[in-house]
Write a structure and sequence with these properties.
Elements (H helix, E strand, L loop, with lengths): L5 E15 L15 E11 L6 E13 L6 E13 L8 H25 L11
Antiparallel strand pairs: 1-4, 2-3, 3-4
Length: 128
């Protein structure tokens, strides 16, 4: 068995939309400590013929500040293809794929949002 029972084969964005939030004002900036609510969706599907392969789709379709507007409106969909080591045995592999796959894809989404907003007029924005 490999050291890592779950590996990302590849991932890609099927949607990446970031625009400046017109409701945000620079004097409202409460920086990294702002409380933010994120609308997240997650879909997991097992491959039709290979039980060791999974597709995980992470959807972020709304980010709102609880106390003030966020500098950007962000909507993205990212898909990842994962493979589970065939020697790895667990009662609920699908749950492991869901949890860890979402974590991996969210990290990739954070990186992409930070990169794109870093070139934006309101400066870099980091998903919490």
């Amino acid at each position: 068995m490999s050291l890592i029972p779950l590996q990302l084969e590849r991932s890609f964005f099927t949607k990446l939309h970031i625009d400046v939030n017109p409701e945000y004002r620079a004097d409202q900036r409460n920086a990294e400590n702002a409380e933010i609510e994120i609308a997240v969706g997650l879909n997991v599907a097992q491959h039709n013929t290979d039980p060791n392969r999974y597709q995980v789709r992470l959807i972020i379709d709304g980010i709102e500040g609880k106390t003030s507007p966020t500098p950007y409106n962000i909507s993205l969909h990212i898909v990842g293809y994962f493979i589970v080591d065939s020697e790895f045995k667990h009662d609920n592999i699908a749950k492991i794929v869901e949890t860890n796959g979402a974590f991996v894809l969210y990290a990739a989404a954070r990186e992409q949002v930070l990169t794109v907003t870093g070139r934006g007029p309101r400066g870099p924005f980091n998903l919490p």
